[in-house]
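The records we work with from here on pair a chain with its fold. Here is one such record, which you should read through line by line:
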Amino acid sequence: MHGYGEYHCIEGNILYIGMFEENLYYGFGILRNFTDDEIYVGYWKKHLKDGIGKTIRKNSITLSRYSKNIVIQNFDDQNIIEILLHDNHRHLVKFFEFSIKELKKYVSLARILNPK
């Protein structure tokens, strides 16, 4: 797969919505891991978190810059919005401003299956 798409791994309980290159997550995308109840909104490179991203868990939200899946810097809400605007990614700001409820609705598997 190349370009925009969706990947549903029912066995792994994962949904990815975003960009692909050579069948790997590449560019901007949202990954919902239903098993860990975690959402990652951000950038990917060759299937690894790479660039800025927001990780949402049940009791926490972390805004970070990644390199090959490793956190190299953490931010607060305002820093990440300023970085997106500076890097001409204004169209992605809404994904970083979504509430947990809005993101869970956006990346729900309900339209495909009932995971419970």
